[in-house]
Amino acid sequence: MKLIRQRLVLGALLGTVFLGLLVLLVGQFLESWTSSTNLRPPSPKISLRKFEWQAWTPHPLDLNYPYPYPFLINHPDKCKGPRGAPFLLMLVMTQPQEVGVRQIIRQTWGNETLIPGVVICRLFVLGLPRPIFAQEIRVLLEEEDREHGDLLQVGFLDTYRNLTLKVLMGLEWMAQYCPTARYVLKVDNDVFLNPSFLVHEVLHPDQPPQPNFITGHIYTDSEPQRSLEDKWYMPPELYPQEKYPVYCGGPGYVLSVSLALRVLTVAQRLKPIYLEDVFIGLCIQELGVQPTPAPPDTFLTVRQEYEHCAFHQLALVHQFKPQELLQFWPDFQAVNDTCPKE
Ligand SMILES: *[C@@H]1O[C@H](CO)[C@@H](O)[C@H](O)[C@H]1NC(C)=O
Ligand SMILES: *[C@@H]1O[C@H](CO)[C@@H](O)[C@H](O)[C@H]1NC(C)=O
Ligand SMILES: *[C@@H]1O[C@H](CO)[C@@H](O)[C@H](O)[C@H]1NC(C)=O
Predict the structure, then answer these.
(1) 203 alpha carbon to ligand 2 midpoint, in Å?
(2) CATH number of the domain that residue 164 is part of
(3) How far away, in angstroms, is 162 Cα from ligand 2 center?
(4) CA–CA gap between residue 237 and residue 296 (Å, rounded)
(5) Residue-number span of the structural domain to which 248 is assigned
(6) What is the pTM assigned to this prediction?
(7) 188 lies in a domain?
(8) Which residue from 40, 79, 194, 301 has the fewest beta carbons nearer than 10 Å?
(9) What is the domain count for the chain?
(10) Which atom of ligand 3 lies closest to the CA of 336?
(11) For a substitution probing ligand 2, which of 59, 63, 156 has the most ligand atoms within 8 Å of its CB?
(12) Ligand nearest 328 Cα, by number?
């Protein structure tokens, strides 16, 4: 009984200490927050405290980069196949558990041998699953990778807010194991992609590579979302400017490998932000490069219903579920002479 009471007292004491600490921290946070939103110049004492506070507690959206994240599943020779250096390296962003999604992508637009005479190298980039699922998923991934040999797993937690790390580590893989590819595509897993249009009408394998090339759906003059509920909320502490640079929208964009290598170099010294497409925009801005416009209306950011002829005249449409792809893919591939000729 006495022991229990002692424990209770101890618990209460610890609780009080903890609460006290919490109040202190919240107080400091509020102070640093108000001092950063106030228009008055902060006193030197406060700004010093604010500096200490920020040095000790990284912002929850801060990204740790550059950092030597390990490649946990890797295929160093994937790009050195018998077909020669790839024309296009496809980096497909997926999450560890999306085994079925990857399977559909392999059977549809991710097919490496879809375009005669053009070497495509496809890798799925993924991070780590949440620890509670880690064991089960590890077994699944090993089996999947034994069969297909196309997974690139990188050692950080796979979350939306960490997508920039995924893209940058994909580019690091390219720099290390596939620098002789001509172009690199970053693509999400919820799109329809028309590789043939992309290759022949946007990238033109018969022409010499363009060194400063990046294309996709180009956003100009867009502004950071400052309302907390927004999916793409950007805290002013992380990005104080009022405009984003010109950038190519995240669902799919292509860079020449020579530009991608320089983007990677610049990315080592710019502060990364969690919106990967905007961050790539910041990198090319730093390099003084402007995106090259693709043919008009060929990278669609808003879903459009499938239509055989229309879809043959574009490169990418966002917002398709993989199951939907599977349904219309046979029709898309079938020869159809009713489409108007160019
Ligand atoms: C990929 O495309 C080729 C050529 O059209 C086809 O023969 C092959 O079966 C496809 N592979 C998959 C996994 O669907
Ligand atoms: C990003 O990954 C790191 C390393 O695994 C992890 O500690 C961090 O919580 C992740 N960040 C976000 C915002 O998910
Ligand atoms: C060809 O495309 C048109 C227009 O999308 C469609 O109505 C027609 O059924 C297609 N024909 C074949 C043989 O697939």
Answers:
(1) 35
(2) 3.90.550.50
(3) 6
(4) 36
(5) 71-228+237-333
(6) 0.84
(7) yes
(8) 40
(9) 1
(10) 1
(11) 156
(12) 3
